[in-house]
Write a sequence for this structure.
């Protein structure tokens, strides 16, 4: 179990590093490199829209990889998605800038970003299932949350590498060649991830489906027929995790540097400290979900995100460095409570025959609804109103929508993940112990 958990964490760390190194570059340099003919706000907006394109691709990737993950197996899809992500990220580091090849530069960037999204759409669900389907019933919440720490670790690495490069280069060097280094070094992380994932076994629940010959021919069809309500509600219930985290690691960096005048290095340190805190808290809240249930812990996290929406900006707007760390720290606690149990909760909603597809589509739907547009919306709201409270209302609204959807879903802690399946009819609900 330890070996499987480590393999899943390292793989998701690599995937999220690749994804969020793009987000950091979008906030700091891409507007000047790929959209230099436009004014600052429009250039930043287009850079963030390119960032958002991956979330549409993630939905496509969730359907494609989910299909083969439910048909062929979890392990093979994990390897293919990791290699695809690695190749796209490395290639981004080689794309010429706008001044060299003109409009072809942002188009290449958009294409590679789309490929990144396809890969992540298939990777996350497989990594969660490799852990959750192997885990003992009483530890599924905790072990499922260990996959989630790939997000703060990947973000920590992405910002750390950018901070290291920014510290040892001046502004001209960073824009010229320094920004490429974080993308190129991802090749090392990908190689490590592939090596480790080659040495894990397929899950017993999928093996049982394969041996009994009950695999769905086209998993997406029975998924939509039997579980469409759960896919939709699961995605909406999870959207606040994406909007909150993207606010902190992308929009917040842009707001802190562009609107408040903080240095890029300071904002990177703030994000890195938040990620270190999330690394410790996410497994804790996953463990609590094993004791008290998935929904109570997730409820608490979403409610805290809603309550902190305005104080987050009040603290930032003071311009104080310690209060910036405090704002991020408080919101990180709320996010961790929400995010820690969510992977296991979504996995337990679906039966084995369509679990890879259902989990992936629901989670990537949440990214499309919550993460994709958040950076662009925050830039647009700030340019329209000039007031950070407009962004706070947006975050508060996302949290309230997620709370409403979560209310309509059943608790899953007591269900059996081996028996939580159906061949026809309506999906089974988790039964009380």
């Amino acid at each position: 179990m330890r070996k499987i958990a480590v393999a899943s964490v390292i793989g998701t760390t690599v995937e999220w590093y690749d994804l969020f190194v793009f987000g950091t570059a979008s906030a700091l340099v891409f507007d000047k490199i790929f959209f230099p003919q436009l004014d600052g706000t429009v250039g930043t907006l287009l850079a963030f829209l390119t960032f958002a394109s991956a979330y549409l691709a993630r939905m496509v990737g969730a359907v494609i990889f989910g299909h083969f993950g439910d048909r062929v197996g979890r392990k093979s899809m994990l390897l293919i998605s990791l290699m695809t992500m690695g190749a796209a990220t490395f290639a981004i580091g080689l794309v010429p800038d706008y001044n060299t090849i003109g409009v072809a530069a942002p188009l290449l960037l958009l294409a590679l970003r789309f490929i990144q999204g396809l890969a992540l759409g298939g990777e996350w669900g497989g990594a969660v299932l490799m852990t959750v389907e192997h885990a003992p019933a009483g530890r599924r919440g905790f072990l499922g949350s260990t996959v989630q720490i790939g997000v703060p670790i990947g973000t920590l690495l992405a910002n750390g590498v950018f901070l290291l490069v920014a510290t040892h280069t001046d502004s001209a060097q960073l824009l010229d060649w320094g920004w490429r280094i974080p993308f190129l070094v991802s090749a090392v992380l990908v190689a490590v991830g592939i090596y480790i994932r080659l040495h894990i076994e397929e899950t017993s629940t999928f093996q049982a489906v394969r041996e009994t010959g009950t695999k769905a021919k086209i998993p997406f069809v029975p998924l939509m027929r039997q579980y469409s309500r759960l896919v939709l509600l699961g995605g909406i219930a999870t959207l606040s995790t994406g909007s909150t985290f993207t606010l902190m690691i992308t929009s917040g960096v842009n707001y802190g540097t562009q609107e408040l005048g903080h240095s890029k290095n300071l904002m990177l340190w703030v994000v890195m400290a938040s990620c270190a805190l999330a690394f410790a808290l996410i497994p804790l809240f996953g463990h609590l979900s094993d004791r008290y249930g998935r929904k109570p812990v997730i409820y608490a996290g979403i409610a805290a995100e809603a309550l902190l929406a305005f104080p987050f900006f009040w603290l930032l707007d003071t311009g104080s460095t310690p209060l910036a760390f405090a704002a991020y720290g408080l919101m990180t606690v709320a996010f961790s409570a929400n995010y820690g149990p969510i992977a296991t909760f979504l996995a337990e909603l679906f039966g084995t025959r369509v679990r890879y597809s259902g989990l992936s589509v629901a989670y990537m739907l949440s990214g499309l609804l919550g993460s994709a547009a958040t950076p662009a919306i925050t830039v647009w709201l700030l340019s329209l109103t000039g007031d950070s409270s407009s962004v706070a209302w947006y975050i508060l609204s996302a949290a309230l929508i997620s709370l409403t959807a979560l209310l309509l879903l059943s608790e899953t802690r007591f269900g059996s993940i081996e028996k939580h399946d159906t061949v026809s009819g309506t999906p089974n609900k988790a039964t009380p112990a």
